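Hi U.,

Before I forget, here's the chain from the pilot set. I'm dumping it here mostly so it's searchable later in email.
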Amino acid sequence: MKKTLRFVLFGLLALVVTACVAIFLIVKLALAPAAGEWSTTVKAGPLNFEIGVPTAVRVATSPWFAPYLDGHSLDTRFGTLRFGWKPAGELLEMQCAPCSADVQALGTQPIKVERLVATVKRDGNTLNGTFEAMPLSTDTTPLQGHWDGKLAPKSLQLNASVQDAPIARWYAVLVPTLPELQRARIGGTLALRGQLALPDATFAVQPNISQFTVEGLGTEAMLNARTSCGPSARLTNDSWLARAVIAAEDQRFFTHTGYDLTEILASIDNNQKPGQVRRGGSTLTQQLAKLLVTGSDRTAERKLRELLYAVEMEQTLGKARILQLYLDNAPWGGNICGAEAAARRYFKRSARTLEPAQAVWLAAMLHKPQAVLEQWRRDGHIDADRIKWVAEGIRGISRNQREALLKGVAAAKFTAPEAAP
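Structure:
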């Protein structure tokens, strides 16, 4: 009797193992990538197998399979996805709470949303649906939008559009714990369209910002602020160094309202290309906010704080004071900050009496002051292409002045100061 029972148990176990292996093989064969198809590796317990992503998407969104996903979840690098099925509209719903994504252009820490809900419906190779990004507070309306996509053997092209919403709501959703939200009065609206290409993970965005204003952060106190970098250079807007700094760091300084969408979008595009040198999109006003208030951590939270202060500074300080504060606080390498201290340290003269080539040289250092100073000390020169680019970007000078300036910077050879003991 015991032998018979043991035989039956072994037989059942063999059937279960055989069934599991059969299911695994069926799934593996059904989802196996075709030649040249976009694929990814899926882990199922101790087993790994390749699946074709387009095939998997078609299966997951099909009306005959999607109901089986109802109530199940899947751990992803964005967060845990929980699935739901809405038979009335044949919609697959996905919830991610919390949900995060790495956006290199916004810093080293991921963008995090407390709760993201999206629906998807497939018609052939066309996908479409809606999404909502929920804030922490139940009193705040979520950000809402719709999306569509085109599934191809080697890629998935997605288009998304977020409806026009108050900028204050965007902040409440993306950085709900930001201390400034307790006192800042944020006006204006933002709508957003974007495109995402997978598997390359390249994206483009087209924001539409209207009437962006900020009040309540107290930046008007900076009208009388003193720098800790030493005496103020007291430079006018038409001084050689002021012009050179604007050419080097923010060529649309006198026309933007604290942020430069053209430069931000160019930065996002440039920083996605392999081998490209990282390009910043910050205005002088944003850099000043970083120097005086927010610090330099490479996080989305810091960048969004910086933006609030920059917009208010434009309203409370004005361009002349912003430029003066930036020049008096900017870092110039070697623990030197402020234009006056830099001019005296590097050229033994005041910032107001700098020669044009010296002014361009100093301005060219600002994008990476410490690294440029070390290059200067090591090689006896700094990046000639950047110096020329800065000189060519200076505005408000005559043709003869520009020609003389370009000749001057091409011939310039300045001795680097020795490192401080």
